[in-house]
Amino acid sequence: MIKRIFRITLIAALFGVFIWTFYYLYKKSEEKPITFQTISPMDTSIIKKTVATGSVIPRKEVNMKSQVSGIIEKMFVEAGNNIKQGDIIAKVKIIPNMINLANAENRLNQANINYENAKTEHERYATLLKQQVIAQADILPYELKLKSTKEEVTAAENNLQLIKEGVTKSAGNATNTLIRSTISGMVLDVPVKEGSSVIESNTFNDGTTIASVANMGEMIFEGKVDESEVGKIKVGMPIVLTIGAINDEKFHANLEYISPKGVTENGAIQFLIRAAIKQNENGAFLRAGYSANADIILDQREKTLAISEMVLQFDKGKTYVEVEVSPEKFEKREIKTGLSDGVNIEVLQGISKSDKIKIP
Length: 360
Prior knowledge:
The protein is an alpha+beta fold and 360 residues long. The chain has helices at 2-29, 98-130, 136-165, 227-230, and strands at 38-39, 42-58, 61-65, 70-75, 82-83, 88-94, 178-180, 185-189, 197-198, 209-214, 219-226, 238-243, 246-265, 268-277, 291-308, 313-315, 318-326, 329-334, 336-340, 344-349, 357-358. Helix content is 26%, strand content 41%. The strands form five sheets. A six-stranded antiparallel β-barrel has the order 2-11-14-13-12-15. Strands 3-10-8-5 form a four-stranded antiparallel beta sheet, with no helix packed on it. Helix 2 (98-130) packs antiparallel against helix 3 (136-165).
């Protein structure tokens, strides 16, 4: 009896294990229902743009140069100072050229000799005139010669003083040894120091730059655009600048110049562009030379119906999306698209904001 019960129990256990195994394998072999993610169209702004890299520079920057050769005797400004037109930047001590100095001294000596000779002749003829030996007209050439030689002495003295000191007696306060600013603005750079030698600016030499002065109230963006993009832009387009040193602010500008000629850089043709930066409302100070990226806005739409480009499907030149018509059931629907920014695309017709679009 006990053996019979044990046998029945064992058979029941084996049958139960068999049934459980069969059920487990059946469930495991069943295909899981496919579910799809969906998104809905949205109202957003679409901005189509191209990017240019460059820097922020002053529109007007002038290098102040010396008009005489010599040594910087005194500097009156340093980088960062705001100055006005006519302010003194530096004083130059002239180191005269020995040949020019010798020639000037010889000229003065010769002028003095001519003057003394003319003076002697004039005195002699003045005595004869007083004695009524000669007529008044006879002394006139000697009076003219005396005045002429006296003027030559004055000119020679001024020339010698100019070579030695850079200023003449007749010039008063006017002197080219004092370097003055030709514009009002901020001193950006002072590349020389007191005691440095400077060379005069002339037709054969650019001369030594004493200081660079710029109007920091009028800044521009200067950058370059690839030849593949330059055909898409035109003067007057708006630009949004992102400056590396001021990450939390955007600056607005207007494109005002596109170079008609490209230059080769790193194997690619680049075209120079310039844009006028609008006055920043937050008052952020733009330093000359800041690197910047310019988003040139080619076209834009404000608060337009759009979807992600990843849901688009294409067939025979037409654009489709799959719209949910019932749970997990979709139908293809042709749509008409507009502007794209590379991520989202404007939808002109075919779907509404309440539709659910399948993500392929």
